[in-house]
Amino acid sequence: MIEISKDLYQSSAHIPFMHFTLHQYLLLTEEPVLVSTGTMQQAEQVLPEIKKLLNGKELKYILFPHIESDECGGLPVFLKEYPNVITVCSELSARELSGFGYKGEIQSKKHGELLTGNGFLFKFIDYPSEVHLQNGVVFYEETRKIFFSSDLMLRFGDAIGQTIDSSWKEEVGAINIERIPNENQLETLKNSLLEIEPKFIAVGHGFCVNCK
Ligand SMILES: [Fe+2]
Ligand SMILES: [Fe+2]
């Protein structure tokens, strides 16, 4: 794992034939938070590194934005290692997880709700990323001003450990109808994103962004 921003560790996989990179993040605070699990295979690979970084601490939370293999496929791997871990996700994802037989503790979060812990404050923002444009969530860690963009602000290329510079307004402005194929929902998402002012975008795919 690479410390891509203060307290924030990135774990990645690059898929050469797709020119595509997938990332997950560990926010290493008193109450450690994993953002997205990666696939089952990625989770198994990264677990020893996470254990090393946690240095005997328990993983407290797993946040994931929507049901998809790269976002939450590795949940069973982490639940086995950390049976008390609390999974935090959208209401729809929470209902789906039970259907998949997930037995760990789940907290569901709505738009505007917070998750406060020792060393962080996450705000949840609706993101119509689930099938049929239903709501998943994206996360904003207000203490460090880090936005976890999931499949938004996505770029192609081998982007492991790399950052680029951009402005938050440009990044929000570039979210297009291909990403959210409904004009009203796209507009609503952009408006809620413009209410925050991140300094760093921890992307799910591609290059992380330093916001100028
Ligand atoms: Fe996704
Ligand atoms: Fe993704």
Automatic annotation (TrEMBL):
It holds the Pfam family ODP. SUPFAM superfamilies: Metallo-hydrolase/oxidoreductase (SSF56281). Gene3D superfamilies: Ribonuclease Z/Hydroxyacylglutathione hydrolase-like (3.60.15.10). Residues 21-205 form the Metallo-beta-lactamase domain. InterPro entries: Metallo-B-lactamas, ODP_dom, RibonucZ/Hydroxyglut_hydro. This is Beta-lactamase domain protein.
